Amino acid sequence: MTGFTMTINGAATTGDGTFDVIDPATGEVFAQAPDSGRGHLDAAMNAAAEAYRHWKLDEEVRRRALLDAADALDSGAERLARLLTSEQGRPLPEARAEIGWATMWLRYYADLEIPREIVQDDQNGFAEVARRPMGVVAAIAPWNLPIILAIWKIAPALLAGNTMVLKPSPFTPLATLAMGEMVRGVFPPGVLNIVSGQDPLGAWMTAHPTPRKITFTGSVATGMKVAAAAAKDLKRVTLELGGNDPAIVLEDADLARIADDVFTGAFMNNGQNCMVIKRVYVHERRHADLVEALAERAKAARVGSGFDDVQLGPIANRPQFDRVSELVTDAIAHGAVAAAGGRALERPGYFFEPTILTGVSDGIRIVDEEQFGPALPVIAYRDLDDVVDRANDTPYGLTASVWTDDDARAADVASRLECGQVTVNAHGNGLRPDLPFGGHKQSGIGVTNGPWGLHRYTELQALTRPARTTSALDNERQTV
Ligand code: NAD
């Protein structure tokens, strides 16, 4: 598949060369993406800086453009979904849902107020606090949810009056490039530029003198490099990073009712969402039953090409497939037992059996690290205080869930968990346009979504005006 172009200054732009895009269901090259050199990046940054001069001026124009962008994505939804399934592997119905979320987020932000707070308006004068745009935003996205995670950046940043240069992951550039084509006529030239390339392109973006803000979603290791690069000229950052998200199943939990949701909470998108359950802690009296219920579901899960009738597709790329394989092998070498799965499927592509591991605990890599794939350790605990400490004993702090019918106990446990979102009797259903999503500790800096996400793309500006009848000197006397 060829013909993908970058969007720079509103125009289709080829790269200095191309790079291969692999279909994870076959392990074969299936498309070429344009490879941006430094010259194209400079052109994109210059276009964004020039477009900013006008884009920041008219809020109504921006709101209409976000609505038009949502309509454009609706029209192109099937093409985008098929590209997502081809490059990322997720089942087509889920890819379609991802495009649906993207349009929902665009419409949410098109309607969201940009706050303006009047602090004083009386005979002595006027004072207000407004939120102003920042300038050019450099946006860098990962491969696990390419479109929705890009839209989480585009919608609030553009509403606030910023312009953007966006780079998708080199593993999944195609749907994002196609989205750029679809909205070329919607945004004025230079407002949304999309460049594609390998990892060094991301580093060039963060070191570039033009952007005033970097919004990054990806791993903690890369997030630290981004923060270090941003520190050189004090660019603002939002970092949405990895997680090692615990689910804590209390003794009273109704396993028959929750087992499906625990399984989905861990295995959605083949375990490749930042906020999925990465480790389950279950009371020791319920451990065997929960392992059995989850193993049953793992064995029954249909795994295959995302274009077939399946629940789980392939792991999205070779490095991630190797990592999941390595962590499962390591766990089994340390005494873990695979109650389901435990190895790769013998077929082309990056398919791995949905895996439930027992006989494993803290201190083993698959429990301590972010596996980001279809393998779930299920760990028994005895004491609730102890398990809360174990859940918190990690550099990560993205999300967690508590499973019990006792609301007061759930609220108490939630209050002691060090993370940005806690869900009760569900996992991950706090991902909504109107709720903040972000990590504590090394899982990130700042939040996305809701007004809080919008604020991250603005700078505060205080504006004061003395009363018209008062001289500047009088005013100074009054305020001293
Ligand atoms: P990654 O860090 O390898 O890459 C992310 C992006 O950064 C890619 O576009 C990559 O090309 C770019 N990049 C690589 N090196 C760079 C550098 N030195 N400077 C700037 N950019 C650079 O992450 P990934 O493997 O693509 O994504 C998986 C990770 O993302 C997981 O850890 C997952 O938890 C995390 N994630 C977090 C969230 C969240 O909202 N918190 C959401 C999705 C994924």
TrEMBL record:
SUPFAM superfamilies: ALDH-like. The active site is at 240. Residues 17-462 form the Aldehyde dehydrogenase domain. PROSITE patterns: ALDEHYDE_DEHYDR_GLU. The keyword Oxidoreductase applies. One of its GO terms (molecular function) is oxidoreductase activity, acting on the aldehyde or oxo group of donors, NAD or NADP as acceptor. InterPro entries: Ald_DH/histidinol_DH, Ald_DH_C, Ald_DH_CS_GLU, Ald_DH_N, Aldehyde_DH_dom, LUC3-like. Keywords: Oxidoreductase. It comes from Actinomadura rudentiformis. Belongs to the aldehyde dehydrogenase family. This is Aldehyde dehydrogenase family protein. The keyword Chaperone does not apply.
